């Protein structure tokens, strides 16, 4: 019997991360998802994943606090052994994050530090600490943003970190290739979720503005993104490496 592969998806209790996890389960993978404060939501996602035939577990993780990563990986090791009968996992999806909408001139040092910790330091260190547990021939998917290609006022700090993640992905792909580990970046456009206070989802004027600059004529939805991430965690994507894949419906062309 072929051993099922396991993906670790950070920020998997809601939004894009939830949809990524569901699509990964549909592809036949088992899941470990992380949550920050929404334990009940994470539990509901685990139940949904199990309905899709996957083994699943949810672990607490604050990506804003790198000092907690050692404890997290100790818990992850125990969970892999006890719940999945494994000592390794196959794919890391660095999805967890938060938004900041603030003009460059008004962004504080603390806000900049927070964006750095969440959107660059965490993906860097989580991948680094995953290396002893990450199966050869597996992969990493880092989540960026269309804002790393086009510019809207108020996103300087957030988008700059995403640009850094895109560079990091190429270096990871280069340095981890000897182990057969592929590293790619998925860059969503504007998505109607609760991210950033739900502005794209709930602000009709903003939603319409985004639709007007998108070739396919609407804002994105979580289900537009999760299936692409899941595809990158399959053998069908085995020759895709060091790529930035923008999933934006053709925004700001």
Q: Strands, helices and their partners?
A:
Layout: E1 6-9, H1 15-26, E2 30-35, H2 39-51, E3 56-60, H3 69-84, E4 89-94, H4 109-130, E5 134-143, H5 156-176, E6 182-188, H6 199-202, H7 204-212, H8 222-232, E7 244-247
What do these coordinates show?
This protein is an alpha/beta fold. The chain has one domain: NAD(P)-binding Rossmann-like Domain (Rossmann fold). It is 43% helix and 17% strand. It is built from 8 helices and 7 strands, in the order βαβαβαβαβαβαααβ. The chain has a 7-stranded parallel β-sheet, with helices on both faces. β5 (134-143), α5 and β6 (182-188) form a beta-alpha-beta unit. α1 (15-26) packs parallel to α2, α1 packs across α8 and α4 packs parallel to α5 (156-176). It starts with 5 loop residues before the first strand and ends in a 6-residue tail after the last strand.
Give a concise summary:
By secondary structure, the chain is an alpha/beta fold. It has 8 helices and 7 strands, in the order βαβαβαβαβαβαααβ. The protein has a 7-stranded parallel sheet, sandwiched between helices.
Tag the structure with descriptive keywords.
single chain; 253 residues; alpha/beta; Rossmann fold; 7 strands
Low-pLDDT runs of 5+ residues are none
Number of domains: 1
Estimated structural class: alpha/beta
- Overall, the morphology is globular
Strand count, sense and barrel status of the largest sheet are: 7 strands, parallel
The span between the termini is 47 Å
What helical percentage do the residues reach? 40-55%
Order of helices and strands: EHEHEHEHEHEHHHE
Major β-sheet strand ordering: 3-2-1-4-5-6-7
Q: How many strand units? A: 7
- Average pLDDT, to the nearest integer? 95
The CATH superfamily is known as NAD(P)-binding Rossmann-like Domain
